[in-house]
């Protein structure tokens, strides 16, 4: 059956636009970057492939805001938590970005509240709960003593940010994919002068000229895991969030680090697992659900020191003598000092006679704790509000009476294979300085584009920070002319698949790339495999990519995404070749390094970039960013002054 395409045909129509600050990506980071620039009186354009009101990893919601260290109830400092993140990741972490997250994150949360987002228990649903502060009505997660992670109604955030963008006069271009950074070379140094894009419904071509640019797009996805039959479940994040910003940056000569880091698949339902948070477990959103075995025997929780905990409240408290513990999106295997209460390890449970399968049994928890997990947390986390919370409830799941079988962390009966890796848990990304400026002049990065990226608070804080710095840069330069030849070349590249008669569907190539990455860049790596993998990717680019056939702009967008996945896969393989030895913190294992694991000479940030078709490697010491607190304060005196006066929002308007 043939369906008429419902949008007008604007192929080969070109619109040229100018602005002071161009923001690519309309997720949390991009929205905050645009707001920061607009508050400073800049002409701002925001380009988003989806619909900004609900786009990005947080479009459907999220359940907690990490590292709100300056909230009035917090007992920890930004320095303490930021340094703990860096230490917990053995130095392979983004110190500046995490400090920005911890120092400015609560400011951004208050901003969003002023735009209409819900961050407090204003309806007194949880009055009297141990995790609620009665004065502020803030709700806290994980560590109830130190209170630096806040439970929020994240589904209200993107609409609130979108309204503020429009109120500030930001020009929002929805359904437009950004495809290429436009650059010029001045005095031997590359500088960005704008970007190209295409409307994914009409095919219209855009040229955006700008004084400065903020890259605020997603981290890569669909690299190792992809199912052509279950596209929407292939990744935890939205289908269209696949790392196009990384591909754009790599093609333009941008420097990346930690792209060799990967962890075993965790959030994917592409035939190997279940929808994220769709089964009961004791991790993250479900923390710290009461767990029972097949007989209904309760599974004990123990604190950092191995002491068995007797009450539910104890699961949310530091151990005696422990300052605080970390829990959340990037804490996969925390060090002893930062380890929070958990159930006993799987092997120990089996040794003690606990019987599979295991279940989450919320009926055994206090009412307010049960409602916080099944209602607020599960109800607000990404991709859970409709498919998990609402659907399960409609089909009769009652947390006061029913148990939910668990395939959670450490207990997965359908666990992933070692070669099924993902860029999850503080992955690699763009290398930058303290201003979040890339090695290309005029380009700043934020959110999931940064290496060792985190969750919602990280995205909002770094986005706003990058918007401030990009605004300051725009004051020092003019809009420069863009190359007509470069624009023509990009236009032809984008439209070419519409005229292909090869007959291949984009899903076929995406699946082929995933298999290539599993086979040649899987759990164990060596130069011989990586070289074969690079040869295969090059063959895909030369012979398979031109064979993809598209019938409409939507399929054309998917084809562009697969081309970007191919580019990012190449970047990852080159990053793997650049690291010569195995590394435990980076989940990186080589067979051809003579058994060397984390040798001192390799305990560095390894960087790669592409210049004139050749790979350029570099490195930086892990302590390159210096003391986080003092280095931040050197560069942000104006913001600190406004913050201390309590009028930073007024000053910035």
Number of strands: 21
- Rg measurement, Å: 24 Å
Largest sheet: 7 strands, mixed
**Helix content estimate:** 25-40%
Number of DSSP helices? 16
The CATH class label of the largest domain is: Alpha Beta
Proportion in β-strands: 5-15%
Gross morphology is globular
What name is given to the CATH topology of the largest domain?
FAD/NAD(P)-binding domain
Indicate the structural class.
alpha+beta
Q: Please state the oligomeric state of the protein chains shown.
A: single chain
Query: Architecture of the largest domain in CATH?
Result: 3-Layer(bba) Sandwich
In words, what does this structure look like?
The protein has 653 residues and is an alpha+beta fold. The protein folds into 3 domains: 14-219 and 428-475, FAD/NAD(P)-binding domain; 284-326 and 344-405, no CATH class; 485-620, Methane Monooxygenase Hydroxylase, Chain G, domain 1, CATH 1.20.58. Helices cover 32% and strands 14% of the residues. The protein contains 16 helices and 21 strands. The protein has helices spanning 28-39, 78-88, 95-115, 157-167, 244-252, 346-351, 367-380, 385-394, 456-474, 484-495, 506-520, 527-544, 553-578, 628-635, 637-645, 648-652, and strands spanning 14-24, 44-47, 64-65, 139-140, 150-151, 171-173, 176-186, 189-199, 205-215, 256-257, 263-264, 291-292, 301-302, 342-343, 359-360, 404-405, 421-422, 429-430, 443-445, 604-611, 614-621. Strands 1, 2, 6, 7, 8, 9 and 19 form a 7-stranded mixed sheet that branches. The protein has a 4-stranded antiparallel sheet with strand order 18-10-20-21. The longest helix has 26 residues, at 553-578.
